[in-house]
Amino acid sequence: MSLFRLIARLDIKGPNLIKGIQLEGLRVVGDPRAFAGRYYNEGADEILYMDAVASLYARDTMLDIVRRTAEEVFVPVTVGGGLRSVEDVRTMLRAGADKVAVNSAATLQPELVSDIARTFGSQCMVLQIDAKRTGPGRWEAYRDCGREHTGLDAVAWARQGEALGAGEILLTSVDREGTLRGFDVELIAAVTAAVSIPVIASGGMGSFTHLHDAAVRGGADAVAVAHLVHYGKATFPALRAEALARGLPVRAA
Fold this sequence. Notes:
It is built from ten helices and twelve strands. The chain is α/β, with parallel strands linked by helices. α1 (32-42) packs parallel to α2.
């Protein structure tokens, strides 16, 4: 059995770590490198940087954040937001990222998933799905930070993404993101039942119970944590200790 991962999610706007609710109302939290360093020292399994406004701003600031983080943080770093081509991915990997998360461009050019996987390996290609519930047991994948419809059924898109070569799914419930009401466990369960690659649950974690639900009821392989750790309501050592006590297969501290 693979170890369940605890991932620090850091949404970035320009030089700042930001946080919002349902990907809107973004507020500045602080220096992303400082937070990434703190989470690394606390034992986070991975760092996830998401460029929240990548389609509107130049990429140089993000590249600098990734480059400097890679000099100080020695766990896998995934970077998403605004990556539109194999060359964009190559540039990000050269800056120090270990994996990339691709959403909008993949929904417009699904072959990009295969191109990235073929060029750099499936382990590098994370398909990012930002999903909104549209009805009982139904979700649509959105692009452009949850603002634009794709018309794609989120579960079917996850299945297609795996067939195209994605090595992992980053699954964010836009409805729950930033609300602290818990993950959309039904969504997670639907996607984990549809694919065989790892699924990272994101959006809504407000307590350890939510993490446990995502793992046990949803079948997630990892959770991305943001608000709780950014605002000091939980720490990675505390989450890891609780996970071990509840029998989840996380890495021992």
